[in-house]
Amino acid sequence: MVCLACLLPLFLVPIVNLLPVIFDLIMAKVYRLFGREYRKPERAPPACPIKPSAPKSGINASVTGKENLAASDPSPKPVGVGVDDSKQD
Q1: Torsion angles phi and psi, residue 67, rounded to 5
Q2: Which residues neighbour 57 within 8 Å (Cβ) at sequence distance 6 or greater?
Q3: How many CB atoms lie within 10 A of CB 86?
Q4: Structure confidence by residue, pLDDT tens digits, 18-62
Q5: How far apart are CA 84 and CA 71, in angstroms?
Q6: Of 5, 26, 51, 55, which is the most buried if we count CB atoms within 10 A?
Q7: Among 72, 73, 53, which residue's Cα sits nearest to residue 64?
Q8: Which residues contact 27 (CB under 8 A, 6 or more apart)?
Q9: Quick one: how far is CA 25 from the chain centroid?
Q10: In angstroms, rounded to a whole number, what is the distance separating the alpha carbons of residues 87 and 39?
Q11: What is the pLDDT of residues 67-86, one digit of tens each?
Q12: Cα 86 to Cα 60: distance, rounded to the nearest angstrom
């Protein structure tokens, strides 16, 4: 036996996918009541979730394809204890 809560997503997904179509049908009928024409909005094409890897260029390219910023931008050098940095009061 399978519980109804486990089967709910199987029936819910198609209904959610049909919501934009149902909305367009209802809006077309409402607009028709007022004597106007409802034009469906332009839908954006689905975007690809997989991004192509960046081309490796230069010597500083790491394994992930991103440039190694630590090699090109050195961190500031620490100041030793007791060193006078010539600050005036």
Answers
A1: -70, 150
A2: none
A3: 5
A4: 898 999 999 999 999 999 988 888 877 777 777 766 666 655 545
A5: 29
A6: 26
A7: 53
A8: 38
A9: 30
A10: 71
A11: 555 555 556 666 666 666 67
A12: 37
Helices of type H across 36-75: 69-72
CA–CA separation, 70 vs 60, rounded Å? 9
CA–CA gap between residue 20 and residue 27 (Å, rounded): 10
Question: How far are the Cα atoms of 28, 59, 60 from residue 70, in angstroms, in the given order?
Answer: 58, 13, 9
How many Å apart are CA 16 and CA 19, to the nearest integer? Answer: 5
SS3 67: strand
pTM over 0.85? The answer is: no
